[in-house]
Design brief:
The chain is mainly α and about 90 residues long. About 40% of the residues lie in helices and about 5% in strands. It contains four helices and three strands, in the order H-H-H-E-E-E-H.
Length: about 90
């Protein structure tokens, strides 16, 4: 099993568990921004670089991975605004 898959699997087995774990870790981001979403920021905190996340592929400089159904469900829900507590406020 790849390290990337292991890190993503550790987030949980449902989109709600993923959201809770990301919130606990302080990983926030912006909806529909694959370079700055909670999952991208989580992976960057874990040492991955050049991270881009979308429902088709999670790309990093180190390795790429097709996201699981659980991660895809989280991405869709987050982009729809279901988890406002994970949305990073703009510093304007």
């Amino acid at each position: 099993m790849s390290q990337l898959k292991k890190l993503l699997d550790e987030l949980g087995t449902t989109h709600k568990q993923v959201a809770k774990k990301l919130e606990k870790l302080g990983c926030k981001g912006h909806p529909e921004d694959g370079f700055n979403c909670p999952i991208a920021n989580y992976l960057q905190q874990s040492g991955y670089t050049c991270v881009h996340v979308d429902v088709n592929c999670i790309e990093t400089k180190e390795e790429d991975l097709k996201p699981s159904e659980v991660i895809n469900n989280f991405i869709y829900k987050f982009d729809e605004g279901k988890y406002p507590n994970l949305i990073e406020e703009n510093d304007e």
